[in-house]
Design brief:
The chain is mainly α and 78 residues long. Helices cover 51% and strands 0% of the residues. The protein has helices at residues 3-9, 24-31, 36-49, 54-64.
Length: 78
């Protein structure tokens, strides 16, 4: 099992709606029951405490967090 599947199983996915850049903070907010803007604010404040981490954490999460799956609405023709 890969990292993407593990994150998806835990509910860490980037939503299709409500994204600002890549949906990382919106996905983190959804997972932990926060408003997306509150999650963004906490993320930015947390990154200010660790110098240089802004350049590493967000892109790594962008790559590792899978996109939210959209339920298929396709039905076979009769």
């Amino acid at each position: 099992m890969g990292v993407n599947e593990s994150m998806e199983r835990q509910g860490l996915v980037r939503p299709r709606d409500g994204r600002v850049l890549a949906g990382v903070c919106a996905g983190l907010g959804r997972r932990f029951g926060l408003d997306p803007w509150a999650a963004r604010l906490i993320f930015v404040l947390g990154l200010m405490l660790i110098p240089g981490s802004q350049l590493l954490v967000y892109p790594i999460l962008w790559v590792l967090m899978p996109n939210e799956r959209v339920p298929s609405t396709w039905t076979p023709a009769a």
